[in-house]
Design a protein that fits this description.
This protein has 2 helices and 5 strands. It has a 5-stranded antiparallel β-sheet with strand order 1-2-5-4-3, with helices on one face. It is globular, with a radius of gyration of 14 Å. With about 100 residues, the chain is of the alpha+beta class. It has one domain. The mean pLDDT is about 85.
């Protein structure tokens, strides 16, 4: 399984970007939204580089359904999903809500 080179989690905006390689400075990436079986869009965007290679997965909204969709997609495509990072994010988010 291909391991991420970076994971960026933005707690205030509740989104995340998992990179499987850093794109080249002048590289143009294609982006597609994943769809669930009901035909609705998940808040998960897949960035593809040259030769349809998956460069990154972006979670545009953070909830269990979105994380599960991203994890399922990653594993189905031979990519390691950083579940431990999302566990930390969930804890940080829960702490933030407790302070509010």
């Amino acid at each position: 399984m291909k391991t991420p080179v970076s994971v960026e989690i933005d707690v205030p905006h509740q989104n995340a970007l998992i990179r499987f390689r850093e794109p080249h400075r002048d590289e143009i990436l294609g982006t597609e939204l994943l769809e669930d079986p009901n035909g609705d869009d998940f808040d998960v965007a897949v960035e593809r580089g040259c030769f349809d290679e998956i460069v990154g997965i972006e979670l545009l909204n953070f909830d269990p359904r979105v994380v599960a969709a991203a994890e399922t997609f990653a594993r189905a495509n031979g990519l390691r999903f950083p579940a431990e990072a999302f566990a930390q994010f969930t804890a940080a988010l829960a702490g933030r809500k407790a302070l509010a």
